[in-house]
Amino acid sequence: xxxxxxxxxxxxxxxxxxxxxxxxxxxxxxxxxxxxxxxxxxxxxxxxxxxxxxxxxxxxxxxxxxxxxxxxxxxxxxxxxxxxxxxxxxxxxxxxxxxxxxxxxxxxxxxxxxxxxxxxxxxxxxxxxxxxxxxxxxxxxxxxxxxxxxxxxxxxxxxxxxxxxxxxxxxxxxxxxxxxxxxxxxxxxxxxxxxxxxxxxxxxxxxxxxxxxxxxxxxxxxxxxxxxxxxxxxxxxxxxxxxxxxxxxxxxxxxxxxxxxxxxxxxxxxxxxxxxxxxxxxxxxxxxxxxxxxxxxxxxxxxxxxxxxxxxxxxxxxxxxxxxxxxxxxxxxxxxxxxxxxxxxxxxxxxxxxxxxxxxxxxxxxxxxxxxxxxxxxx
Length: 379
Description:
Elements: E1 3-5, E2 24-28, E3 33-34, E4 39-40, E5 44-47, E6 55-58, E7 64-67, E8 76-78, E9 86-90, E10 93-96, H1 104-111, H2 114-123, H3 134-138, E11 141-143, H4 147-192, E12 196-197, E13 202-207, E14 216-223, E15 228-229, E16 232-233, E17 239-240, H5 243-247, E18 260-263, E19 271-273, E20 279-281, E21 285-290, H6 296-304, H7 306-314, H8 326-329, E22 333-334, H9 339-378
Parallel strand pairs: 2-9, 14-20
Antiparallel strand pairs: 1-11, 2-5, 3-4, 6-9, 7-8, 7-10, 12-22, 13-21, 14-17, 15-16, 18-19, 18-21
Helix pairs in contact: 4-9
C-alpha cells in the first residue's frame, strides 16, 4: 500500500487566534482530553485577555487534536461538537483539519494506531519532557486509501469500538450492582453493630520494601500500587524480581494468602485480596493481615465503598504525592457484621463476579479484534 504524509490529507495548520481581549473563548488544554476514551471532555471558559499565552490555536467541530508532548501517552481526541464560544486549543496540540475528500474518523483512527505512536516516540526529543513538533506529526506516513475505503474502514473500527464501550458499561453496571447491594445491607448492619476501629479486625498492618529491587525474567512477583486495580492484583502490569533478592526481604514485604492489600501512595485506597503465594510489595502498598472476625474479601470491598474512600483520602497527607498513613487507617471506624452475614453478602458478590468474568472475556476478545484490525489497516 502506497503511503503519503498526513499533511497531504489535511488543510494547512490551524490559524492562530487573535481576538478582542474581552471576548469569551472556550480553552482546551491537555487536561481537557480523556486519554483513555480519546475524547474532549471539557474546556475552560474565559476571556481572551485572561487566557494563557499558549491559547492560540483555532479548533472547530471535527478537528483532531494530537498532543505533541509525551507522545507515548497518545493524548488524541476529536472535538465532536462546537463549544458555546470560540474554541481555542493549547499550543501543546497539533491540530488536524481534514480536507473535504478525507474522512476525519479515518485520520483519527490512524493517530491512535501503534504505528503512529511508535513513529512519534522514536522522533521525540527531550529526556524529561519528550515532545514532537507539529511538522513531525504532519509528516507521519499514512496508507493512501481512497475516500470510500477510508469511510468503510472507519465504519468497521467505530462498530468494534462501540462494542468495546458497551462491554465496559456492562462491567460498570455490575460493579454498581455490588455497591447498591452493599448499601442496602449496610443500612441494616449499622443499626445492629457498633462501628469499631479497623485495627480491631487486624492481626497486623505494615507496608513493603523501600529499597529498589532488581527486575528479572523469572522469579517472585514484585507488586506496586499500579498493579492493584479493580479488586485484584493485576499480574499483566507487575514485574518479577530475583529469587535471591526476594529471600533477603523481611516478612513484612511478603504478603500471605488471604491478606488484603491497600495502595497507600500516589493512587490511594485501591484494594485486593492476595490469592497467590510468592510475591512481595513495595512501600506504596500496605499489607493488612486480618483476624477471625472479618473475611478478606468483605474488607477489600468495604474499603472500596465511597464513605471509606472519602475517610481515607481526607486523612491522607503529603504534597504532590499523597500518602495514606497506616497509623491513621487502623483507627478508622468500620462496621462489620457477623461472619454469616458477611458470607451472605459475598455469595451475592460471587454470583455477580461470574457475570463479570463472562463480560470481561468478551471485552478482551473484542479488544483483540480491534487491535488486529488497526494492525491490518495501519501497520
